[in-house]
Amino acid sequence: MSSILEIRDLCVSYGKVEALHHINLKVAAGQIVTVIGPNGAGKTTLLSAIMGLLPAKGEVEFQGEVQRDIEVEHLVAMGMTLVPEKRELFGEMSVEDNLLLGAFQRYRHGDRDEGKTMDQVFGTFPRLRERRAQLAGTLSGGERQMLAVGRALMAKPKLLMLDEPSLGLAPLIVREIFHIIADLRKTGVAILLVEQNARAALQIADYGYVLETGSLALEGDSRQLTDDPRIVETYLGLGGKKPSGAA
Amino acid sequence: MDLQIALLLGQDGIVNGAIYALLALALVLVFAVTRVIFIPQGEFVAYGALTLAAFQAGKTPGTLWLLLGAGLLVALIDTVNAVRSGSLGRLKRIVLWDLVLPCAVAGLVLGLEPGKLPLAAQVALALAIVVPLGPLIYRLAFQPLAAAPVLVLLIVAVAVHLTLVGLGLLFFGAEGSRTTPFSEARFDLGMVTVNGQSLWVLGASAVLIVGLYLFFGRTLYGKALRATAINRVGARLMGISATMAGKLSFTLAAGIGALSGILIAPITTVYYDTGFLVGLKGFVGAIIGGLVSYPLAAAGAILVGLLEAFSSFWASAFKEVIVFTLIIPVLVWRSLTTHHVEEEE
User: Fold this and answer.
1) Of the candidates A156, A180, A209, which is a domain's last residue?
2) Does B229 touch chain A (CB under 8 A)?
3) Is A20 near chain B, with CB under 8 Å?
């Protein structure tokens, strides 16, 4: 399968401290790929570096094109989009305006189809339609996450990167959000999902990577990872219930 | 003081206040989007007025050479950067905006004898010279420092201000100028006479303010500027580049400044350094709005205009002192009533 995103030998340093060491990672078109790992493993750093928010060494190939001198705006225009951990919504603007701004790059390049895309986003998140005139800052946590994802979808991305969409949300809402993420696969968008909630992430993903203290420790089909005793013990919290054997 | 004098002073205050309001809005805009406290705002007022005056005196304004020079400099820097990073696709845009546009303006000014054109065409030409200086100055002085702290940006703003005042003296000399009024009409309203130019100032200010309101409320680019002001990271992730937002806000600020200068030039004599004081009074208005609220900034600026008019009657020697002392109670009031909110989450 052709890959939409390919990361080769990516290293990121904060000053003298190297936070990510030689990461190699692939996302195939139409796939959901997840990166799981504990707090502080470097998951957010990884997404920020791919998006061009942090300087990094190594190669990022997006849609078959090696990105040199990565600029966020350029990547957004090419179809990459990131829903950051902190959502970064425009709190003093309405839900509708937040969504509209998601289509900014497309609009700039002459695409005036944002009304139709917004209807699709409202179809995915009916709650946002009800709240369309409300200020983003007054939404509940779950609604804010929906708005952040909806705003990213307004760019009609080819690759959607989600940073901890379950963070700070009630279990019921987490389920709803993951349901929607799994459904998004049908629209053809590839998804790179970074999560601490390994169980939920592996359930919807095709392929998974495990990031530990800045290095990829494991990778494999998500079903394979779900059965891997190391994963089970460390991330799924069922230590001892499954027989340990082949790693 | 009788009623007639009060009305006269009030009229004066509101007309000046309208100009301060425009400048206050520009200051709030530039600060919100780029975090630059735009001290050189006033220089655009002087440049606009004096460029128009130069046309009417049959001279070629020096600002034209500044436009050509700044354009050339920016084109050089950007071309080197583009070649270095291998993105040659940018060259077309560089040539168009930094070389072709200034040369086209120069061609018009040198070829047309602007002094003989109708006033509207003169105003358009003056704006065509002064407004592009806004984004060029942003590119040269502020874009490389986009991530710098507010204090550094303020110091650079002071440097840009001093440079522009010096250039203003070089271009226009130490003598002040006045331009012909837009209209010679006078209207008798009971006890006071209102002259046509005052109405022009008020009308144009009102139109501009409504225009800005619609721009920020209704257009995607206006919303993109607001978004940058609210959440820089979020805006970048939407593909709204900080550079684009910075250039756009500086263009608007330069336009507002130049137009204010052109509006007041028939009422008061404008010198090369007049802009600073006018800009500072806009700044007091903007401070009343806390550098964030547009309506409060505009209201504050009108208050500054009225205060100035009445204090020039009662204590003319102290009128500037009174206006600028207003900042102290305003700052005390603001620091008591607003609480600092850290960045969300």
Assistant:
1) A156
2) no
3) no
Q: Indicate whether A19 and A46 sit together in one domain.
A: yes
Q: What is the mean pLDDT of residues B287-297?
A: 85
A10 assigned to some structural domain? yes
- CB of B341 within 8 Å of a chain A CB? The answer is no
Phi-psi region of B113 (alpha: psi -120 to 50; beta: other; left: phi over 0): left
Sign of CA pseudo-dihedral A147, A149, A153, A157: positive
Average pLDDT over residues A70-91: 92
CB of A60 closer than 8 Å to CB of A68: no
What ipTM was estimated for this complex? 0.89
Q: Which residue has the tokens 């050189």?
A: B40
Place of tokens 């019921």: A172
Listed range (A2-11, B18-27, B312-321) with the worst mean pLDDT: B312-321
Token pair for B322: 């009174």
How close does chain A come to B298, measured CA to CA in Å?
Answer: 20
Query: Residue B240 is nearest to which of A68, A93, A104, comparing CB atoms?
Result: A104
Q: Tell me the C-alpha distance between B244 and A136, whole Å.
A: 24
The confidence band for B327, taking pLDDT boundaries of 50, 70 and 90, is: confident
Q: How far apart are CA A233 and CA A211, in angstroms?
A: 15
Are A51 and B345 a contacting pair at CB < 8 A?
A: no
Q: Which of A68, A69, A84 sits opposite B237 (nearest CB)?
A: A84
The number of domains in chain A is 2
CB contact under 8 A, A93 and B227: yes
Based on the fold, state whether residues A148 and A164 are members of the same structural domain.
no
User: Do A105 and B238 lie within an 8 Å CB cutoff?
Assistant: yes
Same domain, A140 and A192: no
pLDDT at A240: 42
Query: Which of A30-34, A215-219, B82-86, B157-161 has the least mean pLDDT?
Result: B82-86
Name chain B contacts of A100, Cβ cutoff 8 Å.
Answer: 220, 223
Contact B230 A93 (CB under 8 A): yes
Query: What pLDDT does A207 receive?
Result: 95
